[in-house]
Amino acid sequence: xxxxxxxxxxxxxxxxxxxxxxxxxxxxxxxxxxxxxxxxxxxxxxxxxxxxxxxxxxxxxxxxxxxxxxxxxxxxxxxxxxxxxxxxxxxxxxxxxxxxxxxxxxxxxxxxxxxxxxxxxxxxxxxxxxxxxxxxxxxxxxxxxxxxxxxxxxxxxxxxxxxxxxxxxxxxxxxxxxxxxxxxxxxxxxxxxxxxxxxxxxxxxxxxxxxxxxxxxxxxxxxxxxxxxxxxxxxxxxxxxxxxxxxxxxxxxxxxxxxxxxxxxxxxxxxxxxxxxxxxxxxxxxxxxxxxxxxxxxxxxxxxxxxxxxxx
Amino acid sequence: xxxxxxxxxxxxxxxxxxxxxxxxxxxxxxxxxxxxxxxxxxxxxxxxxxxxxxxxxxxxxxxxxxxxxxxxxxxxxxxxxxxxxxxxxxxxxxxxxxxxxxxxxxxxxxxxxxxxxxxxxxxxxxxxxxxxxxxxxxxxxxxxxxxxxxxxxxxxxxxxxxxxxxxxxxxxxxxxxxxxxxxxxxxxxxxxxxxxxxxxxxxxxxxxxxxxxxxxxxxxxxxxxxxxxxxxxxxxxxxxxxxxxxxxxxxxxxxxxxxxxxxxxxxxxxxxxxxxxxxxxxxxxxxxxxxxxxxxxxxxxxxxxxxxxxxxxxxxxxxx
Amino acid sequence: xxxxxxxxxxxxxxxxxxxxxxxxxxxxxxxxxxxxxxxxxxxxxxxxxxxxxxxxxxxxxxxxxxxxxxxxxxxxxxxxxxxxxxxxxxxxxxxxxxxxxxxxxxxxxxxxxxxxxxxxxxxxxxxxxxxxxxxxxxxxxxxxxxxxxxxxxxxxxxxxxxxxxxxxxxxxxxxxxxxxxxxxxxxxxxxxxxxxxxxxxxxxxxxxxxxxxxxxxxxxxxxxxxxxxxxxxxxxxxxxxxxxxxxxxxxxxxxxxxxxxxxxxxxxxxxxxxxxxxxxxxxxxxxxxxxxxxxxxxxxxxxxxxxxxxxxxxxxxxxxxxxxxxxxxxxxxxxxxxxxxxxxxxxxxxxxxxxxxxxxxxxxxxxxxxxxxxxxxxxxxxxxxxxxxxxxxxx
Lengths: 312, 320, 395
Known about the structure:
The complex is a heterotrimer of chains A (312), B (320) and C (395).
Chain A: H1 2-36, H2 43-64, H3 71-97, H4 105-127, E1 132-133, E2 142-144, E3 156-158, H5 159-181, H6 183-193, H7 195-200, H8 205-230, E4 233-234, H9 238-253, H10 258-279, H11 284-298
Antiparallel strand pairs in A: 1-4, 2-3
Helix pairs in contact in A: 1-5, 1-8, 1-9, 1-10, 2-3, 2-4, 2-8, 2-9, 3-8, 5-6, 5-8, 6-8, 9-10, 9-11, 10-11
Chain B: H1 2-20, H2 26-51, H3 59-77, H4 85-114, H5 119-138, E1 149-150, H6 158-176, H7 179-189, H8 191-196, H9 201-227, E2 229-230, H10 237-250, H11 255-275, H12 283-290, H13 292-306
Antiparallel strand pairs in B: 1-2
Helix pairs in contact in B: 1-6, 2-6, 2-9, 2-10, 2-11, 3-4, 3-5, 3-9, 4-9, 6-9, 7-9, 10-11, 10-13
Chain C: H1 2-5, H2 14-39, E1 48-54, H3 61-80, E2 89-95, H4 102-112, E3 118-120, H5 125-137, E4 142-144, H6 151-154, E5 159-161, H7 166-179, E6 184-190, H8 194-209, E7 213-220, H9 228-235, E8 241-243, H10 248-261, E9 267-269, H11 277-282, E10 290-293, H12 302-315, H13 321-340, H14 345-353, E11 358-360, E12 363-367, E13 373-374, E14 377-383, E15 386-393
Parallel strand pairs in C: 1-2, 1-3, 3-4, 4-5, 6-7, 6-8, 8-9, 9-10
Antiparallel strand pairs in C: 10-14, 11-12, 12-13, 14-15
């Protein structure tokens, strides 16, 4: 019995680590949906670009720090990648979505699918199809509790996974601060409440939307780095799966709702790990999509989302 | 009466061309049949994505149901009606139809819950169902699982392909010109207003979806009995995108445009094989032309930015 | 539901439109096909044309590009040495974009448009299975470099392969595990890959037959990145080794995570492990593991070293197994054309079938009566993050 409990707790930890990555990506989906009411299909691919940005910056950054892996390298890489990805996000919005602002939603959705396919296949063309080895910017190890604690000490976590969870929490609080306590955050909330009224109040909607894209893409970029320090093999198609799962997470939590996206991400990570550990990996994707469909049927607004009346 | 007669004439014409085509270069023949199958897929999907204004991203899933369903039937019961070639062909057509009905049933199961959802959600849910269908096949030993299914007899020919293509086009055109067509357009133009006018929007959406799934199932059966080998990965997201691109390029809501786009996009990759061999082109350009998906994605973005109604569609007024 | 469909068949008006559409279609088809035909490149009549289809883009691109580089190298070498039967070889390579449906179309093009004498391809069994029936019907020999599914060569007597099949590799590794004295082994399979499932099946059969115990069979899907759930449940069972018949893309990550989780037992695998990024990603975490493959780049024999040198000079990287197999497939075909002294399909087929002790990069290759390659498997081990030759297992 004790074995089973330990195993279960260990799987729970594994699931939480995986879920924190999904949560970061899901936040981007949710924010963009909040202000623009559309799903940015290309978001998962920004996460991939984040990982590749790290791949190219990593060796140079390591060099700056005297070729010693460590927290300094990690933090500065996170910052540089987040800025880069924010720029990419703003660029995508400016090139592809802004000209379509007043068009039917379907047009924007198709464009987003186009952008996503372009980034994936362009990435394959540019970076090559074979997986790349991510530079070691952090010496990974396995953390466990002291043995004197008894059976509990069998539990453990990958150092990089623990750092990812920590960074996710920090970023979440940072995001919360931006949204709740800054002028830009207030503008974002106003825009998501009513775009026309917001612009009447003197808010420059285009700037706010660009900022939202940048913020969401920065989080995706951070997720790209955090996943790569745990699993140091990256390829141009890695964003497809992660993007889909994160989307499901955003819908599960209630799309447009920031705490919801974080909760949804964690839940999806845990569900996936439990299905793999206790049922069979073959059913993992089917069950995740099953959860999505169930949620949409039973409570389309998601776990934390408030119901919204369609405006005519 | 006149309509049935005309349809019959079209079918006879298909038959005549079919018998004449026996001496044709098999490479061209392969492309021609591919065109026919793509017309069925695209014209069917146009009902949902074009006329009804919904967005399905999982058409390949229904194609898979038809392909695997009909192949399983012909492989297990192919000789039920006898082993003469006529009996075998008759059973093949029966299997095609049953495959189509199977796909339509799956479409009904998928459609009723998910069509209550709005555009973006529907896209993701249909994509999810596509993955689920693929996943089920991958785990099903009777259907060859991840090994793929082979050994089907070559039944599909020019006649059957284009007979079904003509039938698809006929049904789609008839439907959109009927009262039902008005219903589809009403759903597309403004769902809330349509509902307020007493139109049962779910009924129209489900009808369009089920019919599209039926035709996709038929197309899948035709495909399976032409290539004689099918694999779950052949019905993935990329395949769904292929069909969506045809509908968008042709112009959502224009049957002739979508059919032309199906022709164009079936031939294009083959033409690009020659383009990428022209030594005068710079190397990177030749590499790009070799990668169909880069071209398709650029095509999607540029079309949406400059001509969202597609090559042959009618421009719709902008709406907020 | 039924009443919904009834009105369809009572409408006459749309038919005129249907016919207009069909007419336009036929015209456009004819026009475009005509255009295609006019674009056809003229080829020198005295070339020997060989068609190669591979996944140069899409999901399987990394394997397709490798095998293509090997094939191209072989053809270049033959042409530099004066060609065959006094003619040059012209290799036409088409990309199937890792897409189903494409191989059949491409092979039709090869046979009817380019008039190839033989077809080379493909790595993935699902693609070869689509192309093989067409080659068989047209009596054009086809040699697959790396399709391991037994069904491929069962299509007919014109279909060959130069790699070993799943049963051989699985059994070899089962015997090897037993020779190491391991009794309790866990298996981790990639359920999306036919290859991986096949290898696992024969390994399990072979291992159980001689009294071994499979403590746990787990699986994952290609493209996964996190394997801690599977590894955690394996760890509690304390296996002596884990058989991991996947591709290097996932194997490297699995090895890394296994090491971090404290799973110290060695990993065993097959030729899917061979790839440029395996050791780069896995670092030292694969130390003490074993896998079977087709050749070792450290092999001192002049045939192998010559190939490695030339490949490195041309492509700037070490060849992997796919490149070596692509090279061998082209060389066996060239040998057969020379021996048959003709490119006639029938005689060429016989010459290929008679291949015996061909000194290939991947060992002495003999094609058996089922048109499969009979050749030794090489077992490599990994020590300090580098490959080391362990042993060679004869068929």
